[in-house]
Design a protein that fits this description.
The complex is a heterodimer of chains A (about 425) and B (about 280).
Chain A (H helix, E strand, L loop, with lengths): L1 H19 L2 E8 L2 H8 L1 H7 L3 E8 L1 H13 L7 E5 L2 H8 L19 H6 L1 E2 L2 E2 L2 E6 L1 E6 H7 L9 H11 L7 E4 L9 H11 L16 H17 L9 H9 L3 E7 L2 H5 L11 E5 L13 E6 L7 H12 L1 H11 L10 H4 L2 H6 L3 H9 L24 H17 L4 H18 L5
Parallel strand pairs in A: 1-2, 1-3, 8-9
Antiparallel strand pairs in A: 3-11, 4-5, 6-11, 7-9, 7-10
Helix pairs in contact in A: 18-19
Chain B lengths: L1 H33 L4 H4 L14 H9 L2 H32 L5 H10 L9 H10 L6 H26 L2 H9 L4 H30 L3 H4 L8 H6 L9 H21 L1 H8 L6
The chains are: A alpha/beta (about 425), B mainly alpha (about 280).
Chain lengths: ~425, ~280
């Protein structure tokens, strides 16, 4: 008991000692190039705010999610600023885990945020996280291979056009594969692509009564198309490919078409990393018979947990890292092409950005084509795009993703995969109290 | 003739031994090689073994982005600290169990081991709450405490098996010669058990060094050991194998070197009593 008292005393003495000096903000983030750049530029912030110091905790995405969820759910207050996705923001805000961001200052200019992104991080009109960079999904293809194969990819392609082009571009003797798509199981991996593809075929995860819809013809059509196309024109071992694996394949000239997050454009056009930098063409996410471009929308955002003791300083930092002045800071140090994309209208209105980033216009078009409030053409009880914004989705999405990954690998048939998906989703949704 | 057969057999065994050894070592070698590649060459197919442009860029990048020494210090404090406290608690326990066992000794040992059977995530939230209320989150003290508790069953089990190998008669003989309990432990038992204690210590330092669930979940900025350092180089969007390999190489280097120097002790301890 005595030692505990001593310990507590020592801890509080340390805490008091700390408060007298500068405040230290602990920021949890992921290791993406835009975040690393922010970390390198923080001197600008600490110079302007000498009374605030910054500590960075960079973690692997899944570790970060688990770590931050534990901390925020117990209101332990280890982090003052957390990097979270558009999936978490509405769910956490409704739980009361995030502080509404009302102290971002006058220079923040909320009206400048892209409406789709702003909606995705707001609950009841209040901003609960500030978007750092945003993305949708689009088609990236090799112009030289398309020309050689004698195909053209229109700006708004259909899946049939993509399939035809992919098949013609494929030349397995030179390890050139017409199409690279995600196959690695996970709610944020293959299920992001497959949910978006299903949306573009008019499929939905649930009907208005939360009954899973994998037994409907739209899902069958979408999944069968995906598996057949990948078998014919995809790379070997595609069922273990995620974003990074496909990025490596595309950069080394092994893919004709890659459909994935728009942020990939800045990697594949970087001549230092990519062999095909000057040969990349773009198109919107394909449609499969209904007017829906998949509704893929994602943003990494900075939020302030409700458990923090330093809310004011935390909001100061969030404002610094996500306002217009930050874009200018990055541009002045590292060039316009490296400014975090996809959050502000002003960036896309800037002629210098358009000149430096040839993919700017198509990225904006892709983001504007996404509507997270209406994921698919049929009515649904959920919001989201390439995901369903309910807490259960992480678990269900990954389990379904494993079935679909197995279908791609050929260890189960498409029908079996859909049937298992239907069963397990029904079970989980009943357990979760959605299906009465 | 007989001699030739023996030589051939020896050679075969040597070759098989080396082959298995290299196979086990290969992932570490590959990580080491990858750490000198560029991100592009790291993912190239077919993989490039030795003939690529060697670069130190990844080490430079890792050095400039993370505070390596802070993580090393944390790892050393946590792994050595938890092992020493664990040993101090476990030696008397194992001594009592080995030399004056009761009817329930076996059950107690089983019960201790059973604490290792639950997946750690099952107690994450309760432990997190206790740590929060006691102000132990993100402190080295907290991590030392939790790793001591986690590795204690293994330490007790290992020491118990080593102590069992020491014939009780020797201790009795010492007592006959008039040695007190203290003298008996210090001058008779300890010298005989040194290999066992040393290998237990080394193995537990390695286990604690590599422990990646609790050290990641209970630390943030201040107490984060090398496991957190490695975890910070994996990226969801962007190639990262080369930098991750550089970070991993830096993280395992100290423990690898320690293992190298203490090899003799480790092998002697692990095979202690094995020939009986």
């Amino acid at each position: 008991m005595l030692s505990r008292t001593l310990l507590l005393g020592a801890v509080s003495a340390l805490a008091l000692g700390g408060a007298a000096h500068a405040e230290t903000l602990t920021i949890a983030t992921v290791n993406n190039s835009d975040m690393i750049r922010m970390q390198k530029l923080t001197e600008d912030f600490t110079k302007k705010n000498p009374d605030i110091q910054l500590e960075w905790v960079t973690l692997e995405e899944n570790v970060l999610r688990q770590r931050v969820t534990t901390d925020i759910a117990t209101k332990a207050g280890q982090y003052d600023i957390v990097t979270i996705g558009t999936y978490e923001v509405p769910i956490w805000a409704k739980q009361g885990w995030l502080l509404p961001l009302d102290g971002l200052g006058d220079s923040y200019d909320k009206a400048d945020l892209l409406p789709a992104i702003s909606d995705a991080v707001s609950v009841d009109g209040k901003l609960y996280a500030s978007p750092f960079y945003g993305e949708s999904a689009m088609v990236m293809y090799r112009k030289d291979l398309a020309e050689k194969a004698g195909v053209t990819i229109p700006e708004k392609p259909t899946w049939d056009q993509i399939a035809e082009a992919a098949k013609k571009m494929t030349d397995k003797s030179t390890e050139t594969y017409g199409i690279c798509l995600r196959g690695k199981a996970g709610w944020g991996e293959n299920m992001a692509l497959l949910t978006a593809t299903a949306n573009s075929y008019g499929a939905r995860w649930f009907d208005e009564k939360w009954t899973p819809q994998f037994d409907q013809p739209e899902w069958k059509k979408a999944l069968q198309f995906y598996v057949d196309l990948m078998k014919e024109a995809g790379p070997p071992g595609a069922s273990s490919n995620g974003f990074n694996e496909n990025l490596a394949l595309f950069q080394t000239g092994k893919c004709g078409i890659w459909i994935d997050a728009t942020v990939a454009a800045s990697f594949v056009t970087n001549p230092k990393e990519s062999k095909v930098a000057d040969q990349v063409g773009y198109a919107l996410f394909p449609t499969g018979g209904v007017e829906n471009h998949g509704n893929w929308l994602w943003a990494w955002n900075l939020g302030v947990p409700a458990g923090t003791q330093k809310a004011e300083a935390a909001q100061k930092f969030v404002s610094w890292a996500t306002d217009k002045a930050y874009s200018e800071l990055v541009a002045s140090k590292e060039g316009w092409a490296n400014v975090p994309p996809g959050t502000r209208k002003s960036l896309y209105a800037n002629p210098e950005y358009e000149k430096a980033a040839p993919f700017a216009k198509i990225t904006l078009d892709a983001m504007n084509a996404a509507d997270t409030s209406k994921p698919t053409v049929k009515p649904v009880p959920y919001t989201g795009g390439q995901f369903v914004a309910i807490p259960e989705f992480q678990g269900i999405g990954t389990a379904v993703g494993q079935q679909f990954s197995a279908a791609l690998a050929g260890s189960v048939s498409v029908d079996q995969a859909l049937q298992s998906a239907q069963q397990l989703t029904t079970r989980e949704m009943t357990k979760g109290g959605y299906i009465k | 003739m007989a001699r030739a057969v023996t030589t051939r057999r020896k050679m075969t065994f040597t070759i098989i031994g080396w082959a298995i050894g290299l196979l086990i070592f290969f992932p570490i070698l590959w990580t080491f090689l990858t750490s000198f590649k560029t991100e592009g060459t790291a993912v190239a197919t077919p993989p490039q073994f030795l003939f690529f442009d060697w670069t130190l860029e990844n080490y430079h990048e890792v050095q400039s982005r993370s505070n390596y020494m802070k993580h090393v210090t944390n790892s050393v404090v946590i792994s050595v600290g938890s092992t020493l406290i664990g040993l101090a608690l476990a030696i008397p326990v194992a001594w009592a169990m080995a030399f004056s066992p009761t009817k329930r000794t076996k059950d107690v040992l089983m019960w201790m081991l059973s604490t290792k059977m639950m997946p750690p995530v099952g107690v994450l939230v309760p432990l997190y709450l206790i740590f929060r209320d006691w102000g132990l989150l993100d402190t080295r003290l907290g991590l030392v405490a939790v790793l001591t508790m986690i590795n204690l069953p293994i330490i007790v089990w290992m020491l118990y098996t080593y102590f069992k190998e020491i014939p009780g008669e020797i201790l009795e003989a010492a007592r006959m010669d008039g040695a007190s309990l203290m003298k008996e432990i210090v001058y008779v038992l300890t010298p005989m058990a040194v290999p066992g204690i040393a290998s237990t210590m080394l193995l537990n330092i390695i286990l604690a060094w590599n422990e990646a669930f609790w050290t990641l979940n209970l630390s943030a900025a201040n107490a984060a050991p090398l496991t957190a350092f490695i975890a910070s180089y994996s990226s969801p969007e962007g190639l990262f194998w080369a930098k991750l390999s550089a970070a991993s190489t830096m993280a395992i280097a100290p423990i690898l070197i320690m293992g190298w120097f203490s090899q003799k002790q480790l092998v002697r301890g692990l095979t202690f009593g094995a020939v009986k």
